[in-house]
Amino acid sequence: MKMIIAPDSFKGSLSAPEAAIAIEAGIKKVLPDAHTVLVPVADGGEGTMESLITSTYGRRVEVDVTGPMHVPVKAAYGILGDQVTCVIEMASASGLILVPPEVRNPMISTTYGTGELIRRALDDGCRNFIVGIGGSATNDGGIGMLQALGVRLLDADGNEVGFGGGELHRIVEIDDQNLDSRIRESHFLIASDVQNPLIGPNGASHVFGPQKGATAEMVESLDRSLGMWADLVQAKTGISLHQLEGAGAAGGIGGAFQSFFPSTMKRGIDIVIEYTKLGEKMQDAALVFTGEGQVDYQTASGKTPMGVAQEAQKRGIPVFVLAGSIGSGIDTLYEYGIHSVTSIVNRPMSLAEAMEQASDLLAQTAEQVLRTYLSGTHLRSS
Questions:
Q1: What pTM, to 2 d.p., does this model score?
Q2: What b/e string do you get for 162-196 counting C-beta neighbours within 10 Å, with b at 16 or more?
Q3: Domains in the chain, start-ordered, CATH in brackets?
């Protein structure tokens, strides 16, 4: 019996490859001779680079860049097996995870380091880019990234502005004559599930600013400043970012990609499924196991279990979702080929305990789910 094991990470406890190995261990306790195919996946956020490097036999490149709070951080990008495709997780260079909660401030946080990663990958010969833009600490409209790639953003005195969303209102001129010419020779596939426009009540500042440290006053200031930035971009490029779908992703860097780069935005899990060839690997499979740390109503909006299930549904393959915890609103998931959603927490325990024992719990749950399924199959056939 062939089974596909395609989980995301269980954040804080297991990477996607580790989760896949744990699930396989549980399956092998039931069917030692089962043909298991491990395809660790991600939805465009954390773990995407690792998933794509693993599946294409690529390599990881570490580089020092400017972090979101202007101090150096060690970031990384991946070069896939074709040696010309680069995968970047924006969070590696400009992520919220890099900034302690008490100092988060989108008025000063910058995307400059993300631009530095792109520039270094261009130096490595990469011309195809996959950029996951989840988990950013920034609300600067992508100006830091543009600055790192040669764009001069000038104030009323002709001087270049500094870093962060608090500098947006000072920009009066966009000089892109020195934008790295290799950008135009490249293509950027932007992994994002965010469809928010740049400004307004559903824009970058109002929806995502508070989690990045923005006060109510900052939110209003940043929204006005992004509106002024959008006016300048439209005058320069003819592209109106104000209400453009996806322009508000990652504090507005989605709009920067849409207006200054040859780019396409696509759901993150769909990109990973394509590059890992998950659909092809499902050929002749009997069952699919997937999972992640939290499964709830948001899962249906394009999270890993949903994407994997949709791919399996095309082939009529039952899908079992294993979750660290289960929230509300999962009923709709069963419309997309998901056979069951099961929590790996099998007894009263603290979160710390569950995370510490995640590997064993995942293996045990995979074993019990498979035993239950096979028992039901046996009863139906008898």
A1: 0.86
A2: bbbbbbbbbbeebeeeebbebbeebebbbbbbbeb
A3: 2-42+278-381 (3.40.50.10350), 48-266 (3.90.1510.10)
